[in-house]
Amino acid sequence: MSALADETIVCLPGERLCRTEDNIVLGIGTYEQNGYIYASKSGIVNIDDSGENCQVVSVHKPGFHLTIPATGDVVTARVLVTTPKFVKCAIFCVRNVLLESSYRGLLRKEDVRETEKDRVDIYKSFKPGDVILARVINQLDQSFLLTTAENELGVVIAYASDARKTRVPMVPVGWSEMQCPQTTIKEPRKVAKVLPESSINAVK
Amino acid sequence: MLRVTQTKNSLLDGASIAEELYTTPKDGEDFFESLDKPEKEPTKLAPRNTFIRPGVLTTVRGSAYMEYGNTKVLAIVAPPKELIRASARRMNMGVLNCYVNFAAFATGDLESVAERERHLGSMLTKAMEPVVCRTEFLNFQLDIRVLILDDDGCLLSTAINCCGVALVECGISTYDLITASTACIFRDHVFLNPSAKVEELLWKHRGNSNTNATSSTSSVQEHGLIITASMDTFEQIAQCQQCGYLSPATYVKLLDYTLTINKSLRQLIRGVLTKRVKEQHELDLREKAESALEDQRLEDIIEKLKKQGLDEFIQSNIKEDPYVKRI
Fold first, then answer.
1. Which residue, B316, B12, B72, B140, is CA-closest to A142?
2. Where would I find the Exoribonuclease phosphorolytic domain in this sequence (chain B) (predicted)?
3. Of A57-71, A80-94, A149-163, B148-162, the least confident
4. B137 in A contact zone (CB under 8 Å)
5. Tell me: domain A74-194, CATH 2.40.50.140, correct?
């Protein structure tokens, strides 16, 4: 296996990659049929065996690849409409890939916070125009269902409602509050704990 | 496919030569005689001279250009759009739409163009549906657009081949590579990859036999056209379109011919796509190397600044305010 991993294996759709076994997981660009794993994209075969006694077989397509939000992806979205029950937003970025066209996202009241779910008020968490980080949990008929029930998810960029013209983003001053540096107005938000890039890399 | 109306457009000279060749049934006969007829059983099962190039357009993500003999086709795949009305076709699969357009100079017969476009579009959609992994983009709509630049027969099969390449180029998940080819039989002669003239001759013959129901010898004869699109990994047939009058034995024979041609076309497409992947892989590596170089440069600058001390850096960057008077 190690000898194979060094050189690049080019594959095309419909090419048989390997047999399905218990310790082999299907990655991106593959599908399973009749006990074998086949490629569904053209690209370079990538075998990742860093996980615990399992190997992920995936196909990486060089150049352009299509990104559609999948379950579990962290997405960046802009809040469009808030109602007492849910928030409608436009997803414009998936992981670190900027999308060409935005997709519809839906964030329900129950998925805003991890704790005290019944006491969540949408109007105390989001305002139209906020940029939020969220995780995709499901794909509904019409839109993607999102959640911000994590410390690292929530509002990232927000502007105070009366000082919108100045375009000075508010600064988080707690888990549930943001403050405008110019007018010192405090507004309630579901604030995301944004980790600096260096610390994320250090964890990995 | 074949044209239905047989109106002649005398205003267009270049494109209408083919039609002027046989305006009367007698001319058709003459043309058939002048045609170098293939043998009754074709010995060489090969596609026409083919040129395929994926990624011809830089403005679209997935595009492909294909020349199949004199037939020239361009296909583009747009990134999936969200379905606006999900209730229209509530399924747990994505929706695929194919649109075919003729370039204004592609065909002489302008009156039937709209009809042919619609017909080709619907048949192309049917052929492409089994190939695309439609479960991967639920409630998305995928648009494939085909522009026909030149028409010399085998339109549908060329369009299918071209679309298949464009889909792979766009990075849309497909179960397999799809290839298609055309074969027809006319007066016991099997034409593989028939040209536009042969297709039209066949169509005319068919039109005649339909109108004159009297049992003339020619109408009893086998005549027909078959288009097969196949996916070879699982030995599947994505689409099989046939028209005319064929006995089962002939049908199977023609089917086998087209499948053999599909196999050799598949080899060709595989080669093209493999080359493309390698090409793009190299580009990616080069890009990565360049960005790494840039990162290195920035890191060096930061390192230098750290040594210099931050204050000095800030001081060196502060420009003097021209409105503040110096004392």
1. B140
2. 48-172
3. A57-71
4. yes
5. yes
Selection from A96, A92, A107, A175 nearest residue A137 by Cα: A107
d(CA B64, CA B54): 4
Residues B241 and B308 in one domain: no
Q: Does B272 touch chain A (CB under 8 A)?
A: no
pLDDT at B2: 46
Please give the radius of gyration of chain B, using alpha carbons only, rounded to the nearest integer: 28
Q: Indicate if the pLDDT at residue B9 is higher than 60.
A: no
CATH class assigned to A2-60: mainly beta
Give the model's confidence band at B193: pLDDT under 50 very low, under 70 low, under 90 confident, else very high: confident
Interface predicted TM-score of the whole assembly (ipTM), two decimals:
0.72
Give the tokens for residue A89. 């937003």
Residue B231 with chain A: CB contacts under 8 Å: 14
Torsion of CA B52, B140, B232, A45, to 10 degrees: 80
Chain B: closest CA distance from residue A177 (Å): 33
Residue of chain B with shortest Cα separation from A10: B274
Q: Do A64 and B61 touch (CB under 8 A)?
A: yes
How confident is the model at residue B10, as a pLDDT? 32
| The predicted structure's pLDDT at residue A24 | 82
* Locus of tokens 């997405």: A75
pTM above 0.80, yes or no: no
In a domain, B324, yes or no: no
Q: Which residues of B touch A100 (CB under 8 A)?
A: 79
The reply to whether B175 touches chain A by the CB within 8 Å rule is yes
Most confident range (mean pLDDT) of A28-37, A72-81, A187-196, B133-142 is A72-81
Among the partner-chain residues B86, B233, B278, the one whose CB lies closest to the CB of A10 is B278
B39 pLDDT higher than 70: no
B182 strand-pairing partners? B227
